Fold each of these.
Amino acid sequence: MFHLAADRRHSDAWRTQRENEYPIYEFMSSRLTNVHSHRVLPEAIISYGGNAYGRVTFDTTQDAPSVRYDIVDTEGKV
């Protein structure tokens, strides 16, 4: 299971492990305006403090479908 969110400070990916349950992943995207940066969060799977957007890609062609979250900055760098 995953959750999509937006934040005005940074882009992150989080994993929350639940007891006796599957984990929940949260993909959070920052803003593309208000040019300034924020600290990254080392406890996240990945964290980016600059202006960016999140790109979510699903692959349902495999027996075990997958999801990929990319953080893309304003210059197109993943």
Amino acid sequence: MIRSSLKNFAKNLVYLFIPMGIFYLFLLLTVFGLAHFLIGGLSTMLSDLTSLIHVSVEDSSVSVNEFLKYAFGQIEWTGNYAAAIRQIFSTAWLKNTAMGFLETLNASTENFGENFSAIVLKFKDTLVAGVSVAAVICAIGVVLANFAARFAIRRKTARRNFKKFFLAHTVVPIVQAIILIAFYILFAFIRFYSLLALVVLLALSAVLSLTASWVVHSDKTVKLKEVLTLKNILSYLGSVGLIILLDLALAAALFAFDALIAALLMVPIVIYSFCIADVNTDAFVCSLVEKNAAPAAA
């Protein structure tokens, strides 16, 4: 399995464009969706704040006028006008004036602070909802990219057993994610829990991958215990380890060039890489099937 990892990685490299295309499409949808929530929420917040401040200023015009006189009275208008303009646009004056203006409204207008906070919190809730939707869209893109890459790489076998293939190669990644979260929570109060959860996840990933390949390709000629052996599990982990090292080396090279490009390229590359790791288990189970079928044919 370890030896075939590099061979399969290079042989099927053209299929890297499949997870790239799907992931980038959903990433684009994610960006536009997040921008929609952000712009819409920001527009609503600014509109509500403008209305609130307008009404509050009318209710407390005397206090506001006195504060503005005080704020602009801090500026030296005589002599150098360029210095006065620089003082107006300085960060400290703008910040102090804005904060003082809001404090004046809060002190002179009933429930201004509560209404102001409610508007800001509403925008925060909108932004959180937008981020949540964007995360779901992005996650769907990763799952679809993962399945499409697996299907393309093992297209001949998948076409012959599409139902089993679909179940095995959509359920397994979801189960792996659930197991990772479950063990992360389980070991949350144990020192080095992250490393322990990772080790458990990798071991279970090997079992799940071999079992999924057995479900799809065994054709009832190979027993599960022939597939789930310690040697096969270690071989799977070895191939995953090799792929992780390759991905880390590539990520380091890309990161040295540009961090954003590295992030955009590495996600589909990682998806493709782990598809190759699981494809190796498919090939192994298929070889067992052919080996068991040969004596029967003879």
Amino acid sequence: MAISFEIPEHIIQQSQLVKWIAESTMRPYARQLDENEHERPTAFVEQMWPILRDQQKANLDKLKQTDNGGGEKKAKRTSTRMLGLLFQVEMLAWGDAGIYLCLPSPALGGAAIEAVGTTEQKLRLLTRFAEGDKPVWGAMAITEPGAGSDNSAMSTTAVFDEETNEWVLNGEKIFITSGKLALEESNGLVIVWATVNKQAGRAGIKSFVVEAGTPGVSIGKVEIKHGIRTSDTAVVVLNNARIPADNILGSAEVQASKDSKGFQGAMATFDASRPLVAASALGVGRAALEFLKDKLAENGVEIPYDQPYHKLTAIQRDVLEMERRWRAAYLLTLRSVAMMDEGQQNSLEASMAKLQAGRASNFVAQKAVEILGTMGYSREWLTEKWMRDSKIAQIYEGTDQINTLIIARRILDYTRRELA
């Protein structure tokens, strides 16, 4: 597939607005909000809600145009939507990764609905993100106390009650990004993964839409974290939570086929979300790299790109290595979103981008702290914060170890049983 490296004009214009928001509403408040965990970035939310609301409305209008009288119509998915999101997310994370995660949007919940839901479900469930003056959040709940990367160990259950035509959910989900914002502070929703048949393993796992205000749904503790401290990461408890029958995404039938819209269909969520996690990691890495180069320049240390490697100082070599890793991760991320915009399968590329961007960001941020020494480690500068914020990209949306396994399996064409 050929990739054009020319950025479309409308994305450049959009990026300029996002850059202004990152510089004026995010970066100046990054330290204050980091020191006061879970304090809401009110000004940022107020600025971003109208923008994201209008974007979501445009997406739904396009969906209506491709819907053939209420049925499913397969249209060629050539667009620049994911490319635009890449630049938007990267710039917002450059402003501040924790504040960025407070974006009022469908987020991972919306990605799951778009990956698995019917046209009717998309229009019905996502409309709340395209109207109104008050911001709305979405989230996705997968991880459990006894089931992290191993989804087959999931214990949250969904039982269908034929008398009331409802699903009854029971269980506990942990580490849910924006879970409190979605369920307690807005008319949002959370996509909950639960099993309808424990004996069927992964084939029995389905995705369910749990909307704010559902009886039997409550927020447990909100985590105190190492990084991304402005964002809330919550526990959601489901105690006989009843949801409408049509709030299951895809078919309720348990199928072992890879083509089913159950677990395998829900996993397609990550094909869209992992490149955006990569983009956020790139934003954090770029913030650290640019700050480091500025401080070095202030002290007379320039990076001579035209000089042979053996003539460079150790610090100059380190900076070149930081830039090399960042650029390689950026190109992988660019490819993964370009493939998605073209409607191509990008599972391999999405995992590669997420893996390498997380590693590159962490390497760059740690090197920046190391090179800047005691000031880099102090709280006077943001370098130590970028080092803390960078680590999450190697954990959520699939750990480095999980993404390495996915990459190996796809390249070698191995199954889970053959390569675990």
Amino acid sequence: MGNSHPVENGFSWHPTLGVPYIAGSAVKGLVRAWVELNEDKLLDDDKAARLKSWFGTEKKDDVAEQAGDFIFFDAIPAQRPSLIADIMTPHMGKWYSDGDENRDLKPEALPADWHEPIPVTFLAVKQAQFIFSITPRKVQQQTQLTEVFKALEQALEWLGAGAKTGAGYGYMTQDDSFSKEMDEVLTKYNAELAKQTMSIQQQAISKVREDFTEKQKLKNHNERVGGSLYNSFNALVKDVKGDVDGVWSDQDKKDLRELGDELLRFVGTNNKKIKEVLAPLD
């Protein structure tokens, strides 16, 4: 509703994907509205600081001297949405369009019950799931991202998005099943990102630890499992002793020793081979 269109009732189609969507600017405005109207727990100074930090200005009409700390992306459907035709039946169209301007009212412009309803159909989205994406501009602002999403969730549940919230449109709740799936994806992504910042030594330790974790899940202490872990760990310790892959820091050696102790507890504390491997780290 509200977009210019030949049949009066416009609809928001994504310009490249061709699907119904909620513009990022609308998502940003919705979160801002929630902070302005409903963050009662914040003091006035704290609310002003949050508005300027998150959105770049304390008031909407202010000239922005800085970009907001967060980027709000378009909300797009998680899957193909169902489209339906809904209907509204205004009874007093002339009153809505001319009543305030024409004081010498004619009968057809009076707000009375003798007018016939004029059915107007419009396109709507039914039971859609939308993916909302927000990212901080800098890594330092990552800690506030949870608060931003919390404000978005509350705004969608209590304020609603769009122009027809009075008719029940635009109210949304979080899909927990989808959130869990996204959390798993995010965890894997963060793990891969962390690896890229690791030294060669830390990457090697991480690789053996992942292998160790998988073996622990098997709950199998037989020689085959222990031998596999022993070989991987033994190769790491030889690198430490011979300094093959570069300089091993004290922290690297400490992490390696802790991993060795975990391995020793897993395969048996009296395992002579593991103890021999650990000896150079003492």
